[in-house]
Structure to design on (1166 residues):
C-alpha cells in the first residue's frame, strides 16, 4: 500500500514539473501585468529546440540553452506587440501559441520518431536514500531539481529584491510605478522574456525526460493548464507548486486507476478537476470578501501601459 | 527627426475593433502576407510557390471549393459569436466549448431522446438543442462575470476544456458506437436529423443558416433597441449607466446569443458534415472564430467574408502537404502571421508620421 | 520681515490650452522657511500653475527661477532632482504594497523598515513602514507621499488641495507638520479652499482669479479677514441682475424635504429641503466636493436617495423611489464627454440615449435624425450633421446638443450640473441663454461652482457647504455676492 502511494506520489511529482516551470514563468509575466496565452507555443518551441539540439550535439546544456532561447524568441514577439505596441494581449498570445505550434509542426517533421538525448531520472546522492520522501522527490529527472531551485528563487526575486518590487508595482499600478521612476516597459519585457525561457525549459522537460522524443503538439494543453494554475495559485509563486502538484497528482491518479484497473472516479472527472477547481477558486476569491484581498489578480493585468 | 505619433482624433484605438477602418485592414493583410512570406522563406520554402499552391489547392478544383464552403459555414457562426461579445468589450474565448456542447446537444436529441422522430421534428429540434446547449454553456461565464466579477477570459478558457473532455468522455464511453470497429465515436445520427444538401453536392444547409444569422445579427445591431444598447455599452459604459440601461441584463443576453451561435455551429457540423460525434469534431473552429471576428473588425456583414478568406487559407494549407511536401502545420503559421499583421496594421493606422522638432507638450 | 532671494519664483508665467488661457502673466515668490497658501475658485488656474512649477506642464511664456537662476523642467522627475516635489490630489501610491516598498520604489533602491523609521523620525513624519498602503487612512497616505519627497531631499514642497481629503483633526496635524518642514528651511506652498483655516495654516497668501494673480504675498495670514479673501476670490461688484426678464413662477414642480444621500466615496448630503416651481431657476452653488455631485446625481435619478420625502407635481412619494421617475427628469451631468454622451457614437445615437423615439423594440432612427437636425439648426450648433460623432463637437456645441436633447424630452424638471464649465465666454453666454429660455415652461435646478453665474441665472440661490444647504438668498439683494462667498467658505451658517 505504502509502496503504491509512494509510486503515485513519485509520478505526481514527475508529472507536475512541466506545469510548474511554465507556471513560474507565467507568474512573473502576469505579476508585471502581461497576460501570455502563448504558453503552448513557447513550450512546443522549447521542446523541439531542446530535443533537436540534444540529438545533434548530445550535450544537455546546449539542449537546455537552445530550449530557453526558443521560448524567449516567441516571448519576445509577444512582448514586442503587447509592451511595444500596446496591442491586445489575448490576441497576441493566441498568435504566439499558433505560431509556436505551426513552426514546430513544420520544422519538427523530420524529427518525429527519431531517437535523441534522454535525460532520465537521476538519483540525488544521500537525499535519494531518505525513506519515502527520497523516493518521491529525489529520484526525478534533472529538470525537476532545477524546478526545486527555481521556485524559491522566483519567490525571493519577487518579494525581496528591487526588481521584484518593480515587477509587482508595474502589475498593480503601472502609472504610479512609472511616476516613481520604475522602468515599467523594461520590467514587463524582461518578465515576459523570462517567462518564455521557463516555458522553453518546460517544453524541453517533456521532450527530453517525460515523454522522450518529439511529437507534433506534444504539450497537449499543458501550456493552458499552466495558465490556469497561475490563477489557481492566485498569482503567488509558492502556490503554483501546489497547483502543479494538484495537476500532477490528478494525472498520476488517472494513470494509476488505469493500470490498477480501479474505477473510483471516472477518468473524465479527474481530467476536468483542475479546471473546475480553478474556477471554484476564482469564484471564491470574488465572492468571499476577506479572501478577495488574498486572491486578487494584479490590478493592471492585461492593461497596456501608456505614459499619460 | 521622423517619428510616429499617435493620432488624437481616434476613438477606441485598441483591441479588435480598432478604428482603422478598411485602410487599416488592407494594410494589415499586406503585412500578414509579407510576414507569412518571410516565415516561409526562413523555413526554406519558396513563398511564391507556396502561395500559388495554396490558391490552387483551395480554389483549383470543385472538391476543394466545396471544402472551402463547408468550412466557411461554421467559421462564420463562431466568428459571429465572438464578434457579438467583443462589441461589448468582453472576450468569448469559449466558443470552442460552446461549439462542442452544441454538438452534444444535437447528439442528445438525435441519438438518445428522439432517435425515431420524423425530420420535421428532429432536424429543427436538433438545431435548437445545439443552440440551447451552447447558450447555456455561455451563460455560466456570463453569470460568473455579472454576479461574481470573474474575468470572462479566464472562465471561458477553462470551460472550453471541461466541454471538450466531457464530449470525449461521451463518445469514448456511454455514447460509443458498439459497431464502431474500435474507432472512438458515436453511431451515426439518424438520417432524419441530417441537414439537407444542395442537390448534387456535399454542401449542407449550414452555410445558408450561417449567412442568415449574419444578416439577422447585423439587422439586430443596427435597428433594434437591444443592438443600440449594446453599441452604447460597448463604446461608453458610463453613458450606458447614465441612460439607465440594465448593463447586467444586456451582458447576459449577449453571451446567451453568442453561445447559441457557437452551439449552432457545432450542431450544424454534426448534422451536416460529420454526422456523428467523434475525434476531430473539436478541430479549432471556436478558436478560429476569434481570428475571423478580428479580421472582420467585429462587423457582422464582414464576418462571412473573413470566414471565407480563412477557409481558403485552411483548405489551401491542407494542400501544401501534397503539393510541396510541407506539413499542414504551416497553416497555423499563416494564421499567426495574419493575427500579427492585423495587430501591426491597427497600430500603424492609429498613428501618423511627424517630421521635425519635438512636439509641444500635451494638456494634462 | 525681509527676505532675500525667493527659493522658487516665477515671472510672467502663462499657460494656454487651445483657446482657453489657464494662467496669464503670473508672478509668484516662494521663500524658504515660509508656508504659502494659494487660493482661488474652481478653474482659477491654481493646479495649472503648480503643475508648471513642478515640471508637469511646460509654460507657454514666462520664466521659473530656482534660487534666482532661470530653470526649465522637462518632467516632474527632473524638477524633483532639483529639489521641487509635488503631492497630488490623487496619490501616486501602489496600494497593495507596503509603505517601505512604496518608498523603495520612489528612491530607486530597497529601503528597510528600520531605515524608514529613521527617515520618519528625522523629518518628523509619522509613518508605519510595514503596513500596506491600502490599509492606511488618507492622512497616513499623504504622509507617505510627503516622506517620499523629503527622502529625495526636496526643498520646495507643493501640495494640491491637501486638506480636501482629510478630516479636520488630520488637517490640523498636516498644517503643523508643514510648519515644521518649512522651519527647516523649505518653501512650502499648498492650494486650499478652506478660508477659515488660512490664518492658522499659512504664513502668506496669494489669490488667483481667472488665471491671474489678484493679490500676492498677503502676510501675515493670521491678520487677514477671510471675508476679504472671499471677496478677492469671487471678484468685486457683480453685474446688475436683470429681473424684468423673469416670468412669474408657476406651480410647485418638485419639493423635497429631509433628503439624504451619497455614497461612501463622496461627502454625501443630508437634511436638504428644496422646492422648485415651474418658471424658476433654483441655483445651488458651492465649492466642488461639498456634496453637490451626489445631490445632483440623486435628483437626476441616477443614484438613489437614502431618505426623505418628495412631492412631484402634487404626488407624494418616498425619496428612495425617485429613481423610478427618471422619465420626468432631464438630467445634464457634469461630464459631458464621457457620461452625458458617448464620444464615439454619432449624434443620432446620442440623441436616443435619453430621448426615446419610436416604440420599444425598434427605435425610430429616422425620426431621431430629423430631430437632431432640427436641434442643430435651432440651437445653432456647429456640427456636420446627425451622423457626426459626438467627439467631433467642441465643448460648447456638445453642451448645446445635450441641452437640446434634454429639453426635447419635455420633462417638467431639468437638473443641470456645471453646464458652463470649461467653456469660453461666447459659448458660456449661449448656454446661459438656453437655460433661461428653458426655465420658462419647466422647473430648473442649476448646480454651479461660479457664484456670479448663480446670481445671474438663479431666481433663488442656495449655497451648499459640507453636504447641507447653508443658506438661500435673493439674487437681487445687493450684498448677495458677498454673502455667497462667505457661505461657500463656511464662514457663515445658514
Amino acid at each position: 500500500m505504502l509502496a503504491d502511494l509512494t509510486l503515485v506520489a513519485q509520478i505526481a511529482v514527475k508529472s507536475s514539473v512541466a506545469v510548474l516551470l511554465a507556471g513560474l514563468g507565467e507568474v512573473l509575466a502576469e505579476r508585471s501585468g502581461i497576460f501570455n496565452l502563448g504558453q503552448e507555443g513557447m513550450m512546443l518551441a522549447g521542446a523541439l529546440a531542446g530535443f533537436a539540439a540534444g540529438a545533434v550535439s548530445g550535450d544537455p546544456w546546449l539542449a537546455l540553452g537552445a530550449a530557453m532561447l526558443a521560448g524567449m524568441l516567441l516571448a519576445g514577439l509577444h512582448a514586442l506587440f503587447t509592451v511595444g505596441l500596446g496591442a491586445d494581449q489575448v490576441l497576441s498570445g493566441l498568435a504566439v501559441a499558433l505560431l509556436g505550434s505551426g513552426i514546430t509542426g513544420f520544422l519538427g517533421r523530420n524529427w518525429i520518431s527519431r531517437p535523441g538525448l534522454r535525460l532520465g531520472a537521476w538519483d540525488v546522492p544521500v537525499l535519494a536514500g531518505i525513506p519515502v520522501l527520497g523516493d518521491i522527490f529525489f529520484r526525478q529527472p534533472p529538470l525537476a531539481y532545477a524546478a526545486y531551485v527555481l521556485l524559491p528563487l522566483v519567490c525571493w526575486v519577487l518579494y525581496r529584491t528591487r526588481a521584484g518590487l518593480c515587477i509587482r508595482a508595474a502589475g498593480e499600478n503601472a502609472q504610479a510605478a512609472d511616476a516613481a521612476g520604475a522602468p515599467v516597459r523594461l520590467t514587463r519585457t524582461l518578465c515576459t522574456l523570462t517567462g518564455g525561457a521557463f516555458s522553453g525549459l518546460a517544453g524541453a522537460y517533456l521532450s527530453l525526460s517525460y515523454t522522450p522524443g518529439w511529437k507534433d503538439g506534444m504539450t497537449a494543453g499543458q501550456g493552458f493548464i499552466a495558465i490556469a494554475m497561475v490563477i489557481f495559485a492566485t498569482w503567488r509563486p509558492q502556490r503554483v507548486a501546489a497547483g502543479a502538484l494538484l495537476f500532477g497528482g490528478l494525472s498520476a491518479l488517472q494513470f494509476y486507476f488505469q493500470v490498477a484497473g480501479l474505477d473510483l472516479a471516472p477518468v473524465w472527472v479527474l481530467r476536468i478537476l483542475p479546471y473546475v477547481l480553478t474556477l471554484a477558486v476564482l469564484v471564491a476569491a470574488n465572492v468571499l470578501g476577506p479572501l478577495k484581498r488574498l486572491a486578487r489578480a494584479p490590478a493592471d493585468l492585461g492593461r497596456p501601459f501608456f505614459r499619460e | 527627426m521622423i517619428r510616429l505619433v499617435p493620432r488624437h482624433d481616434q476613438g477606441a484605438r485598441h483591441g479588435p475593433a480598432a478604428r482603422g477602418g478598411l485602410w487599416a485592414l488592407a494594410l494589415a493583410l499586406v503585412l500578414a502576407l509579407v510576414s507569412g512570406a518571410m516565415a516561409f522563406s526562413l523555413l526554406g520554402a519558396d513563398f511564391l510557390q507556396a502561395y500559388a499552391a495554396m490558391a490552387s489547392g483551395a480554389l483549383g478544383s470543385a472538391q476543394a471549393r466545396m471544402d472551402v464552403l463547408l468550412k466557411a459555414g461554421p467559421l462564420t457562426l463562431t466568428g459571429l459569436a465572438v464578434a457579438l461579445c467583443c462589441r461589448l468589450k468582453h472576450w468569448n474565448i469559449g466558443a470552442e466549448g460552446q461549439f462542442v456542447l452544441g454538438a452534444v446537444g444535437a447528439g442528445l436529441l438525435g441519438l438518445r431522446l428522439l432517435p425515431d422522430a420524423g425530420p420535421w421534428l428532429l432536424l429543427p429540434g436538433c438545431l435548437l438543442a445545439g443552440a440551447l446547449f451552447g447558450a447555456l454553456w455561455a451563460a455560466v461565464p456570463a453569470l460568473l462575470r455579472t454576479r461574481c466579477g470573474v474575468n470572462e477570459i479566464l472562465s471561458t478558457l477553462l470551460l472550453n476544456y471541461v466541454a471538450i473532455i466531457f464530449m470525449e468522455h461521451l463518445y469514448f464511453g456511454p455514447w460509443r458506437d458498439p459497431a464502431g470497429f474500435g474507432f472512438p465515436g458515436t453511431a451515426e445520427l439518424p438520417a432524419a436529423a441530417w441537414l439537407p444538401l444542395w442537390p448534387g453536392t456535399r454542401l449542407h444547409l449550414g452555410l445558408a443558416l450561417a449567412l442568415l444569422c449574419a444578416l439577422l445579427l447585423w439587422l439586430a445591431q443596427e435597428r433594434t433597441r437591444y443592438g443600440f444598447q449594446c453599441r452604447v455599452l460597448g463604446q461608453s459604459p458610463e453613458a450606458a449607466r447614465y441612460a439607465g440601461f440594465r448593463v447586467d441584463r444586456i451582458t447576459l443576453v449577449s453571451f446567451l446569443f453568442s453561445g447559441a451561435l457557437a452551439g449552432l455551429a457545432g450542431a450544424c457540423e454534426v448534422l451536416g458534415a460529420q454526422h456523428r460525434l467523434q475525434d476531430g469534431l473539436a478541430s479549432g473552429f471556436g478558436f478560429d472564430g476569434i481570428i475571423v471576428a478580428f479580421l472582420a473588425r467585429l462587423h457582422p456583414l464582414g464576418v462571412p467574408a473573413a470566414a471565407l478568406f480563412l477557409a481558403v487559407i485552411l483548405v489551401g494549407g491542407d494542400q501544401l502537404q501534397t503539393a510541396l511536401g510541407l506539413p499542414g502545420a504551416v497553416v497555423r503559421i499563416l494564421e499567426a502571421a495574419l493575427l500579427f499583421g492585423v495587430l501591426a496594421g491597427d497600430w500603424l493606422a492609429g498613428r501618423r508620421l511627424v517630421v521635425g522638432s519635438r512636439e509641444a507638450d500635451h494638456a494634462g | 520681515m525681509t527676505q532675500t532671494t525667493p527659493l522658487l519664483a516665477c515671472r510672467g508665467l502663462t499657460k494656454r490650452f487651445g483657446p482657453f488661457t489657464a494662467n496669464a502673466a503670473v508672478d509668484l515668490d516662494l521663500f524658504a522657511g515660509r508656508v504659502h497658501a494659494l487660493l482661488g475658485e474652481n478653474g482659477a488656474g491654481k493646479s495649472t500653475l503648480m503643475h508648471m512649477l513642478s515640471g508637469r506642464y511646460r509654460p507657454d511664456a514666462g520664466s521659473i527661477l530656482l534660487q534666482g537662476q532661470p530653470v526649465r523642467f522637462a518632467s516632474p522627475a527632473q524638477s524633483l532632482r532639483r529639489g521641487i516635489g509635488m503631492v497630488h490630489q490623487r496619490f501616486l501610491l501602489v496600494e497593495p504594497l507596503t509603505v517601505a516598498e512604496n518608498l523603495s520604489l520612489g528612491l530607486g533602491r530597497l529601503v528597510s523598515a528600520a531605515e524608514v523609521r529613521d527617515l520618519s523620525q528625522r523629518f518628523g513624519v509619522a509613518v508605519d513602514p510595514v503596513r500596506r498602503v491600502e490599509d492606511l487612512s488618507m492622512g497616513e497616505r499623504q504622509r507617505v507621499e510627503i516622506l517620499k519627497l523629503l527622502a529625495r531631499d526636496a526643498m520646495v514642497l507643493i501640495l494640491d488641495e491637501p486638506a480636501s481629503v482629510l478630516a479636520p483633526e488630520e488637517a490640523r496635524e498636516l498644517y503643523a507638520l508643514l510648519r515644521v518642514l518649512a522651519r527647516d528651511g523649505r518653501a512650502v506652498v499648498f492650494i486650499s479652499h478652506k478660508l477659515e483655516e488660512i490664518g492658522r495654516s499659512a504664513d502668506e497668501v496669494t489669490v488667483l482669479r481667472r488665471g491671474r494673480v489678484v493679490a500676492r504675498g498677503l502676510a501675515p495670514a493670521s491678520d487677514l479677514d477671510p471675508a476679504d479673501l472671499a471677496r478677492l476670490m469671487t471678484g468685486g461688484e457683480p453685474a446688475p441682475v436683470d429681473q424684468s426678464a423673469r416670468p412669474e413662477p408657476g406651480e410647485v414642480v418638485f419639493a423635497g424635504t429631509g433628503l439624504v444621500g451619497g455614497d461612501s466615496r463622496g461627502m454625501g448630503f443630508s437634511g436638504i429641503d428644496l422646492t422648485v416651481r415651474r418658471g424658476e431657476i433654483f441655483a445651488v452653488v458651492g465649492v466642488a466636493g461639498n456634496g453637490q455631485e451626489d445631490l445632483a446625481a440623486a435628483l437626476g435619478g441616477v443614484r438613489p436617495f437614502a431618505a426623505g420625502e418628495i412631492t412631484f407635481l402634487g404626488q407624494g412619494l418616498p425619496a428612495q423611489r425617485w429613481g423610478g421617475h427618471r422619465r420626468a427628469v432631464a438630467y445634464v451631468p457634469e461630464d459631458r464627454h464621457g457620461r452625458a454622451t458617448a464620444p464615439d457614437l454619432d449624434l443620432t445615437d446620442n440623441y436616443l440615449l435619453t430621448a426615446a423615439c419610436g416604440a420599444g423594440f425598434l427605435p425610430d432612427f429616422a425620426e431621431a435624425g430629423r430631430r437632431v437636425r432640427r436641434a442643430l439648426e435651432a440651437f445653432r450648433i456647429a456640427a456636420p450633421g446627425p451622423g457626426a460623432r459626438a467627439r467631433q463637437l467642441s465643448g460648447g456645441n456638445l453642451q448645446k446638443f445635450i441641452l437640446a436633447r434634454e429639453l426635447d424630452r419635455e420633462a417638467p424638471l431639468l437638473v443641470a450640473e456645471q453646464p458652463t464649465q470649461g467653456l469660453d465666454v461666447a459659448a458660456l453666454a449661449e448656454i446661459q441663454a438656453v437655460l433661461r429660455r428653458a426655465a420658462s415652461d419647466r422647473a430648473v435646478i442649476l448646480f454651479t461652482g461660479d457664484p456670479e453665474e448663480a446670481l445671474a441665472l438663479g431666481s433663488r440661490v442656495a449655497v451648499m457647504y459640507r453636504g447641507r444647504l447653508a443658506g438661500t438668498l435673493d439674487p437681487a439683494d445687493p450684498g448677495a455676492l458677498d454673502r455667497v462667498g462667505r457661505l461657500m467658505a463656511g464662514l457663515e451658517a445658514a
Notes: Residues 285 and 451 of chain C are 6 Å apart (CA to CA). The radius of gyration of chain C is 25 Å. Chain C has a mean pLDDT of 87. Chain C touches chain A at residues 76-77, 92-97, 101-102, 104-106, 108-110, 148 (CB under 8 Å).
